[in-house]
Amino acid sequence: MATPAGTTQKAWRVVRRGSPSQALKFQNDLPIPTPSPGSVLVKIQAAALNPVGYKLMKLLPNLIAGRPHVTEHDVAGVIANGNGTEFKEGDSVLGLVDNSKKQGALAQYAVIPAEGLVHIPPTLSLAQAAGLSLVGLTAVQGLVDILHIKAGQRIFINGGSSAVGALAIQIAKTEKCHVTTSCSGGKIEGVKSLGADEILDYTASPLWNQLSSATTPYQFDAIFDAVGTTALFTHSKAYLSPKGTYVSIVPEMNGVFGTLWGLFETSCRPTWLGGTPRTFKFFSMKPSKKNLQYLADLAREGKLTVPVDSEYAMEDTLKAYERLMTGHANGKVVVNITH
């Protein structure tokens, strides 16, 4: 049964600033929320972790972060209360939880707007479904909605082995683009299996140098940066078409001064002061049922999969964060929610 047996639930809440081991507290007495009109109650079965989760735990003070609150966004589960929406009890769904309501993915239940959910395609496991929403929405919005990629274009995706990069490669190939990407030498075979046409090992030498000095010059129609590498943009005149656009999902994190300088170089420095004569755009992912359905349809058609690195029990959530924080996860790190 998806309907709650009681009125309280288990969850991991962020109660203070710090690393996950310092900031998170496991509680078993939180009230199960009641859905408002247009929303449903989801019985969460799996939750995927994202680097932004632990980074915000470390960075933001309690007042700004609105603590305490349940952490993480990505969920897969079943409808416990359809509340008069398109969904009925027992439907398998995936989507995002809004932390601003003090809710999060690392809980047994969450109230989510029906507009923020889609049915899980049968081609995805529960763990894969949990890991799709945030990284998939980021990839499709960057490539399709902002860069407007088209068949035949040559695209460079920085960070092909990252969770966002892995989805971006598959989406770009579905749109019939030629994809060049980057990863470390040890991950080349895995990235190649996603469909990338050409792969550069970023540990061999700086990517901008490899691209600038290639025997056959590169000329990309667009660059999608899933890592945040300032130098890749500042040297892009050599390999990004004059009409091309460089899109990044994050700034390069290099201490306070280094990060601010990178933002100046990419977003503020005019060309007459030595700025790069190419279009640069930052963007933040926004929930979108249309985009989420696009991703689910690709998965249903066998054109998209979600790499999963590892799965952990709910009580081992801190170990799951330890794995994620190594930076060596080959796919999503997923927590299975117990009931």
UniProtKB/TrEMBL annotation:
Range of residues in the leader sequence:
none
Which Gene Ontology cellular-component terms appear in the entry? mitochondrion
Family matches, as Pfam families: ADH_N, ADH_zinc_N_2
Enoyl reductase (ER) domain mapped to chain residues: 19-335
Q: Which domain of life is it from?
A: Eukaryota
Its Gene Ontology molecular function terms? oxidoreductase activity
- Read off the SUPFAM superfamilies from this record: GroES-like (SSF50129), NAD(P)-binding Rossmann-fold domains (SSF51735)
Entry's PANTHER family?
A: ALCOHOL DEHYDROGENASE RELATED (PTHR11695), RETICULON-4-INTERACTING PROTEIN 1, MITOCHONDRIAL (PTHR11695:SF294)
What protein am I looking at?
Answer: Enoyl reductase (ER) domain-containing protein
Species of origin = Botryobasidium botryosum (strain FD-172 SS1)
